[in-house]
Amino acid sequence: MRRLLAAAAAALSAAALVALPGHASAASSPVPEFDFSACPAPPADADPGTWRCEAFVSQGVLTIGAREIPIGEMRLTFSEGKVDGKFAQVFGELRHAPARIPGTFGASLQLKYGGYSDFLSNDERRGELDLYAVLRHPLLPKGCTIGTLEAPLHSVVKDDPTVPFEVISQNPKTVKFGVVDAQLTVPRTTGCGPLARAADQLLGLPSPSGENTFKQVTYVQLKPL
Fold this sequence. Notes:
Blueprint lengths: L1 H14 L36 E13 L2 E17 L2 E11 L2 E2 L7 E11 L8 E10 L8 E2 L6 E7 L6 E5 L2 E9 L7 E2 L5 H8 L8 E13 L1
Antiparallel strand pairs: 1-2, 1-12, 2-3, 4-5, 5-6, 6-7, 6-8, 7-11, 8-10, 9-10, 10-12
Organism: Amycolatopsis speibonae
Protein name: Secreted protein
Keywords: Signal
């Protein structure tokens, strides 16, 4: 039955838009080069000597239902420190090149920053980040997305025990760890025009919490500000 369903999805993609087969996973890679050019400056009332910039380089996989989409490299920067003795942070930038969706005819997915982040880790999670995804294909309008800036996907990531925390270097401070969001909710597409229903069916959207995962292997380097 599963093979029949997979074959049907492939046929629909050829006739209409895209399908999402594929079985990729985040693989280990050499320590990347870090870019601090997008680091935001500390606020004017920042406590001196407490601020640093953190540059993230991640390799990830987004799974929607049973379909795995390798999202490739994602880069993220933010600054953190204290203001009046209290923790504070300023978001810098999220960079993600369009990632090819395996088994499709030119379709890709590009992650964008959704306007909210919280990187103060605690016992329950490592961080939170709002995202939305731009879907690109010759048959889709430019505004076709999964989630929007006004209604983004809210990702809460926890430590992935399969990729334990590792200190790569003390000078400069560089670490590696894995995170996973196993509760991500993925809504229907937005702004996809006449092919919206086909795109939703092929992607399996909407897909409720508990049916999706967002896994990343992340390197982080810290720079004092």
